[in-house]
Specification:
The protein is α/β, with parallel strands linked by helices. It has 2 domains: about 100 residues, Arc Repressor Mutant, subunit A, CATH 1.10.10.10; about 240 residues, Rossmann fold (3-Layer(aba) Sandwich). Helices cover about 50% and strands about 15% of the residues. It has 17 helices and 10 strands. The strands form 2 sheets. A 7-stranded mixed β-sheet has the order 6-5-4-7-8-10-9, with helices on both faces. The protein has a 3-stranded antiparallel β-sheet with strand order 1-3-2. Helix 15 links the parallel strand 7 and strand 8. The protein starts with 11 loop residues before the first helix and ends with a strand. Pfam families: Methyltransf_31, WHD_Rv2258c. It comes from Halomonas beimenensis. This is Putative transcriptional regulatory protein.
Length: about 375
């Protein structure tokens, strides 16, 4: 009798393992794509390709002011990733318009901006691994470009929606800003939201606090260039804001992606409550997530946001001896912290264009 190999259906365990292996292989390729995309964004190669006829690597290098050998290797990677197209007959390359709309400033959102997080966070991997073994955290000084990248991020989520979608979440707020109120932005970073607000509402007075001297210097320079006399920026540690905040000093306080990486988020929130007038509004934008891991399984950005937390937000807080709240602190915990800080009227919103964030409108 002959031995016959009869194929059998794979067991569910085998199928699951095969699927997981396929996912990992794809992730490796996608990781490479993100590194290449970040380089393309920072060097201007993506912008230089957009809207252009097919170019040789030499022509693209000359157009970009870059070294041809590096440009050629980058093009090879982007072709392999099926982003850039090529014609082998004349060794030319081009970026299709529909892809350029997603990877340059020609479209509504430049997704290449977010690719920068991968190399930025990878640069501190050794520090994070050390913290796994020894405790502590990675200091803010180890992230020299973080404020720059975050400013680009908020420039695509907060700024385009600020006047038409975010401010109207608090009825009457736009009218109050037009009439003239006092506004504070805590953890303001480079202050791009405040710069836009101060220009739009000249009758109101604005101030921004942030721990980063580099970010505040950049913001002050921009305010001076724009001639904004109703706007001031201050380097300030907000870890004791619950005790140092001036009571009733502001009709509006904002934080844009600014609570979860604070050393002492509870103290900051208590200070914000203290600093508001009785009829004041606290407007919060922070990461949309759950406070329970199993409920984040379906989050479309769950893995990358936890990676950002582990490699920046959580560890920077721990480096200051802080709570280490982390990016994915979640809506449930956010609501509990806001209530503990004294806020009684809290409404939560999501905006159609922004799958990444929740928006809280809070009143004392």
């Amino acid at each position: 009798m002959c031995d016959i190999d009869i194929p059998t259906r794979p067991t569910p365990q085998t199928t699951h393992a095969d699927d997981f292996e396929s996912r990992l292989v794809k992730a490796l390729n996608h990781g490479g794509l993100l590194l290449l995309t970040s380089i393309g964004y920072r060097t201007g190669l993506l912008e230089a390709l957009a809207g252009q006829p097919p170019l040789t690597s030499q022509a693209l290098a000359e157009r970009s002011g870059l070294q041809e050998r590096y440009v050629r290797e980058w093009l090879g990677g982007m072709v392999a990733a099926e982003v850039v197209e090529t014609d082998p007959a004349d060794a030319t390359y081009w970026l299709p318009d529909e892809r350029a709309a997603l990877l340059t400033d020609r479209g509504e959102a430049n997704l290449a901006v977010y690719a920068q997080f991968i190399p930025l966070l990878g640069s501190v991997e050794d520090d994070v691994v050390r913290c796994f073994r020894e405790g502590g955290g990675v200091p803010y000084s180890r992230y020299p470009r973080f404020q720059e990248v975050m400013a680009s991020d908020s420039g695509q989520t907060v700024l385009p929606a600020l006047f038409d979608a975010i401010l109207p979440l608090a009825p009457g707020l736009t009218e109050r800003l037009e009439a003239g109120i006092r506004v504070l932005d805590c953890a303001c970073g480079r202050g791009r939201a405040l710069l836009a607000l101060a220009e739009r509402f000249p009758a109101s007075r604005f101030v921004g606090y942030d721990l980063s001297e580099e970010a505040i210097a950049w913001a002050r320079d921009q305010a001076e260039r724009a001639g904004l006399t109703n706007l001031a920026f201050e380097v300030r540690d907000l870890g004791d804001f619950d005790a140092t905040a001036e009571p009733g000093a502001f009709e509006l306080v904002t934080t844009f992606d600014g609570i979860h990486d604070q050393a002492q988020p509870r103290r900051l929130l208590a200070g914000i409550h203290r600093s508001l007038t009785a009829d004041g509004v606290y407007l919060v934008q922070d990461i949309h997530a759950s406070s329970h891991h199993h409920l984040d399984r379906e989050h479309p950005l769950g893995a990358i946001l936890y990676a950002v937390s582990l490699s920046h937000c959580m560890t920077v807080s721990l480096a200051q001896g802080g709570e280490g709240l982390g990016t994915m602190w979640g809506r449930e915990r956010a609501l509990a912290y806001l209530k503990d800080a004294g806020f009684r009227d809290i409404q939560v919103h999501q905006l159609e264009h922004d799958i990444q964030n929740d928006y809280f409108v809070c009143r004392p």
